[in-house]
Design goal:
homodimer, mainly beta, Tachylectin-2, Chain A, 5-stranded antiparallel sheet, 3% helix, globular
């Protein structure tokens, strides 16, 4: 696959982001939603922060406290056998799971799509009981003049997907939990199909240990049902462990093109392509045998959680996929792929 | 709690059920939905079957094959270290999960609510890709002249909840998957509240290892959203491990009364009560400190999966809760509890 990576990659890194409060440091800025507003490209970045401080014996984690209406700090001893820090993203303590960082969504604006001005304050940060561990991985779907933002909300009650809307990216309206635990990687199609809204989503099945892509339909974007199984991991391939929707699907002459992510057993995340029928988006026309984008550059293979490329959004313009993607749970990159090359890969 | 158990308990057992096909045996008839139709009490029983045969070295499991449109048998060697039979409900083979029995839904009719005539054939059995491992644990909600049946559909893609409808319990219409994996214990409220349908449901959160009761709303019973967390397990109590909705909620002067199930770490399942606000069913008014029904009789403590009482339905008539409940994943029992005694327990 011919991938034109931006020479300035990563285009946004942790050092470019002002922490949301004193005493915090930004540890990652990655999986970003993207939209066009006028002549600007807007990103809704996932910014992961953690409290500075603690000491050699203590790890601090930030949690939004609904009763106080503010973020509080929780201490975990490095020396307690009750605490497990083996996954750098998690803190397991006394059988409970916490996150090692707390994420919010931050707006960035650009005229050329590569050089961004980043807001000093969060656009959306934890503010209710479903968001106490933060907001992650937004996707933006533009529908009838309104931008709908779905994002992952994490709390001790589970990983849900919530919806918000905006017309101007200044005022946002929260619309509630649209997919209950455990569900993420929700990508809402950017137009109705035969009178219904559709969304790809990725529920996790505990008993059967599966992470598959499903499709749901809706009349109002809030209530979703008639769930259909779309596709799962493929044994022995780069997407053998799990798959999930990536960017919001976009229309081509051949059907809906979805750039999804897949991971193998080593937790190496690549991007693949799947083509869905234009009128029956539950029918797969073709799925790429090989990744269309895989971790190869240093900034993709190394970092907080290395060997990860992960997209939540792209712009499809001039028959080019302009992909914004997170690398190594650390930074934001940009790459371009010609549509004809993706279509050719789907035919192999 | 004063519980009047029926003297003829269990009122239905495996020997009362004709297998759905030659070569099968009924291993359990338990968690049952209930409805009134005219002067009859109707049950929609969960009937669990398994193939007769195999030998000392082989376990047979039945699976619905969508390509063949028929049930096929799969063999598992008892001698393979790849196969794990430690949970009697499951077969784990080569990292994949299968069920040791396949369930369908069977209709039974009675005039006195205790002595039932049981159909010779299933009312609803596995017939699509979401039901290849069977149908389980139905609940019936009577809404505007139609009986809506939600039931658990199990397949390798996960545990989902599906909806069907009927007016006469002779013809059933399937309405699709209404809750995606992993979700069961769905109880649809029997009337709209302020213009919306509501349902209790029980998603399983893998990352945070929770099994909590949530509430969803709907305009059409098919698409569900605006999910709200209602309640979870209580540390150190009889419902410390997991909870899930049981019977369809019913109205009292005090609010919606829901009889739910809870399990402790020993997988002992009891029934409790929770009272929800009449107009805001996401608000808990009271929750019983102790179970209202717990495994005490021999037929409740012993059996295929002992120490389990589990309800999917009750009739609320003459201020009495007429509870139909499964015992030990083996048989169906009946008990009566006075409403005033449940209300008193909620005040403790």
């Amino acid at each position: 696959m011919k991938v034109r990576r931006c020479r300035e990659n990563p285009i946004i890194g942790p050092k470019d982001i002002k922490p949301s409060r004193e005493g915090f440091e930004v540890v990652g800025v990655f999986n970003t939603a993207v939209a066009r507003l006028g002549d600007e490209v807007l990103l809704l970045l996932r910014v992961a922060e953690r409290p500075v401080g603690g000491d050699a014996n203590t790890v601090l984690a930030a949690i939004y406290d609904t009763a106080k209406g503010d973020t509080i700090l929780k201490e975990f001893s490095r020396n307690s056998s009750d605490n497990d820090f083996s996954d750098p993203r998690l803190i397991i303590s006394g059988g409970r799971t916490y996150l090692s960082s707390i994420s919010h969504l931050r707006l960035a604006r650009s005229r050329d799509g590569v050089h961004f001005e980043i807001d000093a304050e969060p656009a959306l940060a934890g503010s209710n009981e479903y968001e106490t561990f933060g907001l992650e991985d937004a996707r933006i779907s533009f529908l009838s003049g309104t931008y709908y933002i779905d994002y992952v909300a994490v709390s001790p009650n589970g990983v849900t997907t919530c919806l918000a809307s905006t017309r101007d990216f200044e005022r946002f309206e929260r619309l509630g939990v649209i997919f209950c635990p455990e569900n993420k990687d929700v990508a809402i199609f950017p137009r109705k199909i035969n009178g219904k809204y559709y969304a790809l989503h990725r529920p996790v099945s505990s008993l059967f240990a599966t992470s598959d892509i499903w499709l749901a339909e809706s009349d109002d974007l809030i209530c979703w049902g008639n769930h259909r199984y779309i596709m799962g991991p493929r044994a022995g391939k780069w997407d053998e462990l799990k798959v999930g929707a990536g960017a919001v699907p976009f229309e081509t002459e051949q059907g809906w093109l979805e750039i999804y992510h897949g991971a193998d057993r080593a937790n190496r995340y690549c991007l693949g392509a799947v083509l869905l029928d234009a009128e029956k988006p539950w029918e797969i026309i073709a799925r790429s045998a090989e990744p269309v984008l895989e971790p190869q550059a240093d900034y993709e293979t190394q970092g907080f959680f290395g060997n990860v490329v992960f997209t939540c959004g792209l712009l499809f313009e001039d028959n080019i996929l302009k992909i914004y993607y997170g690398v190594a749970d650390t930074a934001v990159c940009y790459a371009e792929i010609e549509l004809r090359d993706v279509i050719a890969a789907l035919a192999e």
